[in-house]
Amino acid sequence: MAARDVCLSEPSADLREAPKRLQRRVFEEYGMPNARAELYEVDYLITPELGGAADLRNLWPEPYSDTVWNARVKDALEDRLHSMVCAGKLDLATAQREISTDWITAYKKYFRTNRPLGMN
Predict the structure, then answer these.
(1) How far apart are CA 106 and CA 47, in angstroms?
(2) What is the Cα gyration radius of the chain?
(3) How far is the C-alpha of 25 from the C-alpha of 31, rounded, in Å?
């Protein structure tokens, strides 16, 4: 997928959230069959906004709380990287590699901070 493809089309609403049929499988794959789904976002390693697929290998359970590096913080990074790719400030392959390799390091790099914004 090319950068222009991810910038010209918005992912469908059903791809913004991992498909329900996969969510329970993700918890099972991660050894969390009894996890309370409302406490987690079954998140994309590479978000559809950056060309990621709704595939079990691209999904993982990410907590909404219990850590400062949570699902909401990663969502902010996803938005930042998508904006940078579409503005021509970052190539798509780099964005995909950095978010999938170590998203916390990528957050620190692109937000120029050592802690999530809004944290004291």
Answers:
(1) 14
(2) 14
(3) 10
d(CA 98, CA 48) in angstroms, rounded, equals 15
DSSP state of 84: H
Say if pTM beats, i.e. exceeds, 0.90: no
Three-state DSSP at 53 gives coil
- Adjacent-strand bridge partners of 41: 62
What is the rounded distance in angstroms from the CA atom of residue 93 to the CA atom of residue 78?
Answer: 14
Taking the mean position of all CA atoms in its chain, how far away is CA 10? 15
* Whether 46 contacts 100, CB under 8 Å: yes
State the Cα–Cα distance between residues 15 and 49, nearest whole angstrom: 9
Kind plus residue range of the DSSP H or E element containing 20: helix 20-29
Strand partners, 42: 61
- Per residue in 6-51, pLDDT (tens digit) is 898 765 555 567 777 788 999 999 999 999 889 999 999 999 999 9
- Contact between 6 and 84 (Cβ < 8 Å): no
